[in-house]
Design brief:
Part of the ABC transporter FtsEX involved in cellular division. By secondary structure, the chain is of the alpha/beta class. It is built from seven helices and ten strands.
Length: 225
């Protein structure tokens, strides 16, 4: 599903690698936490997986496709198989909840009849069926993140990348988001979560990859399997 082989990434002329000779294999259907202090390379890793950045060295294979070889014009099509949720939600402020989720489908030219069926289904799944006409500034932080998650999942992505998805949320909303991520994983989506929330990581007992200074320093299954 996701394979990194001897991947390094350096920025600018400094020559200091943000990622150092990383080897990583995430299987289809896994739920993986990536943790580590600020500056450990977690955000760079997410950008590499999204092909927002290319590695300085090494290869990244996602769904049997070496993404280093993807031509620029084909990157949008590649990204359609990946859902992304960010800490700052990144909703369209001038569109209501329904329109924010529908936008993800319109981008890939999904027929309107399918959009009209799938968007309400996603809103029900994240518990916001009655808020479909609301705009982002009328929602709480937890509600905005649920909209962002619904938007990320509406196209049924094979992979979901969540970069600090609970960073701006209180504990109650954080747990609700993690429950939704786990439900997506149980439906078959491979989930990769970058987080500083140790309480959630310890409680959920998933695979945990710990990074430090651009390297993986531990990789273990907390669930004991």
């Amino acid at each position: 599903m996701i394979i990194l082989e001897n991947v390094s990434k350096s920025y600018g002329n400094t020559g200091v690698p943000a990622i150092k000779n990383m080897n990583l294999h995430i299987k289809r259907g896994e739920f993986v936490f990536i943790v580590g202090p600020s500056g450990s390379g977690k955000s760079t890793l997410i950008k590499l997986l999204l092909k927002e950045l290319d590695p300085t060295e090494g290869n990244i294979t996602i769904n049997n496709l070496n993404i280093r070889r993807i031509k620029k014009r084909h990157v949008p099509k590649f990204r359609r198989q990946i859902g992304v949720v960010f800490q700052d939600f990144r909703l369209l402020e001038d569109r209501n909840v329904y329109e924010n989720i529908a936008f993800a489908q319109k981008v890939i030219e999904t027929p309107n009849r399918i959009i009209k069926r799938q968007v309400p289904t996603m809103l029900s799944m994240v518990g916001l069926a009655e808020k479909y006409k609301s705009f982002p500034n009328q929602l709480s932080g937890g509600e905005q993140q649920r909209v962002a998650l619904a938007r990320a999942l509406v196209n049924n992505p094979k992979i979901l990348l969540a970069d600090e998805p609970t960073g701006n949320l209180d504990p109650k909303n954080s747990w609700e988001i993690m429950k939704l991520l786990e439900e997506a994983n149980q439906r078959g989506t491979t989930v990769v979560v970058v987080t500083h929330n140790k309480e959630i990581v310890d409680a959920m007992k998933k695979r945990v990859i710990t990074m430090k200074k651009g390297e993986i320093i531990s990789d273990e299954y907390q669930g004991g399997y």
